[in-house]
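Saturday, quiet lab. Running sequence design on the structure tokens for the scaffold JK sent over.
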């Protein structure tokens, strides 16, 4: 995913990895994946709706398949980002742009799972 022209293909490949492999197999590569995704997101050339959709789908697959702690680790490793910032600025606005039934269902399940399993959201609900 080193260039904007390969980002969409890279996201599709990562989706396949997440769906078909156990977390133990690709865990050692998550820091590099996160760094690449963050770099592409910050790039003005790839900061578009297509990339955001792909990123949300990728993170939704990771969350549903491997749990909310994996998403929390990724979000918390991004400089100056909290889960609330992530949800407010990326997830919720990006979710609204996804319109295929299967993807909407995936993202809805992932959102519910994140809200129910994440300690950050549980702590705020208790306040």
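Result came back. Writing it out in full:
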């Amino acid at each position: 995913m080193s260039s904007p022209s390969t980002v969409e293909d890279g996201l599709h490949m990562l989706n396949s990895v997440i769906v078909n492999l156990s977390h133990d197999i690709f865990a050692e590569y998550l820091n590099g994946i996160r760094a690449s995704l963050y770099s592409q997101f910050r790039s003005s050339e790839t900061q578009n709706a297509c990339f955001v959709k792909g990123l949300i789908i990728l993170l939704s697959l990771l969350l549903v398949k491997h749990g909310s702690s994996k998403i929390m680790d990724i979000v918390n490793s991004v400089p100056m980002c909290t889960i609330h910032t992530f949800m407010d600025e990326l997830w919720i606005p990006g979710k609204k742009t996804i319109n295929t039934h299967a993807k909407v269902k995936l993202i809805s399940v992932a959102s519910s799972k994140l809200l129910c399993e994440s300690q950050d959201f549980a702590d705020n609900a208790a306040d």
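Notes for JK: Residues 101 and 107 are 10 Å apart (CA to CA). The two ends are 41 Å apart (CA to CA). Ask whether to fix the surface positions before the next round.
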